[in-house]
Structures are given as C-alpha cells and as structure tokens.
Design goal:
The chain has 225 residues and is an alpha/beta fold. Helix content is 38%, strand content 14%. It is built from 7 helices and 5 strands, in the order βαβαβαβαααβα. The protein has helices at 20-34, 76-84, 101-111, 146-149, 152-155, 157-167, 194-224; strands at 7-12, 38-43, 87-93, 133-139, 171-175. Strands 2-1-3-4-5 form a 5-stranded parallel beta sheet, with helices on both faces. β3 (87-93), α3 (101-111) and β4 form a beta-alpha-beta unit.
Length: 225
C-alpha cells in the first residue's frame, strides 16, 4: 500500500514573523515534521484579503466551490492548501480578548464554505464536509492565573469550538505572560515589570516551545492511529 504523506499547515496570525506566536508555531511544525509530516508555515500579514463577504456562493444548490471560498484574492492559494491539508494549526496573539482580525478573517473564509446548512434524510444537519486534525495556539500578555479571571477559556474557546465542530477535532494551547517588547524602556508600559517579564520568559518559554513541539507530534500521531 502506498504511504500517504501527511500535509500539515501552520498559519501565523501575528504581524510579527519571528516573535512569540511564530516561534511556538515553528516548534509545533518541527514536532509534526519529526513524525514524518510535510510542513509549511504561512504568515497571514503577508497577504491582502478580506473576511467573508456573505456572497453565499458556497451555499448555492448548484455550488461547485468544493469547500473553497468563491472570493478570489491573495488568500485563495492559502485556503486551497488549508482545504487539502490533513492538519491545520492556527496561531494568534490575543488582541482585546480575541484572536487578531486577520486570523478571524482567514477563519471565516476557511470554515464557512465547509459549514453545512443542509439536512440529511432524517432531518439532521449534515456532518462536517472535511475531517482534519486542527489546533489553536493563543499567545498573550496576561499571566496564566488571569485566564479564568478574564474568561479567556470561554472567549478564546469559541474559535477552537468552531474548529472542532467543523473539522472534527481541535486542540488548544495557551501561552501566557509573553515578553512583548525588545526593550521595555522605550515604551510607555509602566504597568509591567520588565525584569519579571524577562524572568518568566527565560523560565517558562522554553517549556512552551516543548509543549508546541509535543502538540505537533501528537496531531500527526492521531492521524496514524
């Protein structure tokens, strides 16, 4: 039997290409690669695109979009890769208690064409068109003990739940208390103790990278079971 290459796509929803979110995604991709997956990392902020335009071309009875958004722009090639991938991991920093706007726009265009409004013969909504291993990675400035206080498990869990409902599986990885600036002295950010932020980064970020690596490895293993 021919061995199928597992395709794993890693989507960076941060405007920064080498900081916290990007580094965690790179570690996750590395973990997937060690299990034999073909990996690719894409930066959303390199592309010019919009969110869903409610054209409903994907919901027409005569639709031939096959799970791909009908709007044709710079996001289209990435959406095609996401539809074809076996694993999709989306990483985003948290802006005002949510994923970035670019991440949200990507998810709208990726998920909605594969979200069924139709019913089967028994009157039940048709199951997800695509089955994938997916994950959401969230990086944020608040400390871990603030997750419950700020209800981030609920607020951020929404995007992961949508991925779960539409692709059958979604893991979550929270990376807290990230080191935000290269030099805190240059910014009006007196509410933060730079020494404490640096200490936390040096102590915990290596462990966050290991968790990302393990996540990538586990997603591939899930497909091989």
């Amino acid at each position: 039997m021919e061995h199928k290459t597992i395709k794993a796509l890693f989507v960076n929803g941060s405007p920064r290409k080498n900081k916290n979110t990007a580094q965690i995604l790179a570690a996750t991709a590395q973990g997937a690669a060690t299990e034999g997956a073909q990996t690719e990392i894409v930066n959303l902020y390199d592309l010019s695109y919009c969110g869903c335009t409610s054209c409903f071309a994907c919901k027409l009875k005569t639709a031939r979009t096959h799970g791909l958004c009908a709007v044709n722009d710079e996001l289209t090639p990435l959406l095609r890769k996401a539809v074809e991938a076996d694993i999709v991991v989306i990483g985003s920093p948290v802006y005002f208690s949510d994923i970035t706007g670019m991440t949200r726009a990507f998810m709208e265009r990726f998920i909605f064409p594969n979200f069924s409004y139709d019913l089967d013969a028994d009157g039940n909504r048709l199951p997800p068109r695509l089955n994938k291993q997916t994950a959401m990675i969230y990086t944020m400035n608040i400390p871990e003990q603030g997750l419950e206080q700020w209800k981030y498990d609920i607020l951020l869990g929404t995007s992961a739940r949508i991925m779960q409902q539409n692709f059958g599986h979604c893991e979550k990885l929270f990376v807290c208390n990230t080191y935000q600036f290269n030099d805190y002295s240059l910014y009006a950010a007196g509410m933060f103790d730079e020494n404490e932020k640096r200490r936390h980064r040096d102590l915990h970020f290596p462990e966050d990278l290991k968790r990302g690596f393990e996540l990538g490895r586990q997603l591939v293993e899930n497909l091989q079971k």
